[in-house]
Amino acid sequence: MPDSLLQRLNITVPIIQAPMVGVSTPALAAAVSNAGGLGSLGLGASTPEQAIAMIAQARQLTAGPLNLNLFCHAPAQARAAVDAQWLAGMTPLFEEFGASPPPGMREIYRTFVGDDAMLQVLVAARPAVVSFHFGLPGAEAIQALKGAGAVLLCSVTSLEEAEQAVAAGIDALIAQGYEAGGHRGVFDPARDTQMGTLALLRLLSQRVAVPLIAAGGIMDGQTARACLSLGASAVQLGTAFIRCPESAASSAYREALAGPRGHDTRITAAISGRPARGLVNRNFTSLGTTGIPDYPLAYDAQKALAAAAAAQGSDAFAVQWAGQGAPLARALPAGELVAVLAQEMDGDGNARR
Known about the structure:
Order of helices and strands: HEHEHEHHEHEHEEHEHEHEEHHH
Shape: globular
Strand content: 5-15%
CATH architecture of the domain at 2-73 and 109-247 and 328-345: Alpha-Beta Barrel
């Protein structure tokens, strides 16, 4: 099964670079694909026009396969009283930086579910791989993408989600453990089993018949090799690529990963409206913990606060997603990192710092 998945993905190294919106770039995706892995573009925050531009940029840099990732969350439901109270609670934080909260919150990230314009972009692009986060698109979209020749992946965090994805026709599952950085791929945040990577991987390997891709806390080839021995056909790494020069991470973000803050990652829904793991700063200690607006409405307010702080030279509210194991991230060019990971997976030497 591992070999057959690699053949379907057209890769020689069983490594997938996670599609980190705001961090992954066409240059990063291309470098990973050129090194024999699968590079990914996070299109969840993009308009169809922006998606077309990103795909074109990546294809100028690589002839290898690309994974295009979309968000499949339920549309936000505005709740006037809840949303107003949330903004009122943030007012003192804005005032610290001489600013005021926005008058309202916008749905800044559209769901791919029912987005015919984005579907048309993907079908026309005929990507090697399309992956989904937060859930699944409709049956018509799945059939259209399969008709365009794409291998379909979906992040799952439980057996229930895995069974739904398999029944919908997904070709391989990304088993995302609780250790993973960034947003949990859970379909319904109210039903999060919080399973770790290895436990989830072993459970799914016994219960589903499609290939599995392990994700969450994987930072070196030794850990990747362990995942392969436990039933994964490939592994997906995100935090491990943040310090690569091809990523869009700021210098402060890179330094934080390597410093003391890299040892403290936690999960909160207060930043965006959905649970996500990142480096602890005031996003985790100063925002509310109840009455959080729907995703991505809460994210719109947080981004406004982060911008107000940044305008005053503060990164106290900068969003720095990261998984457990963040201090193990290496500042290597992406292609070199893939090569080092492959050597470690083959048992050639110890993990390289």
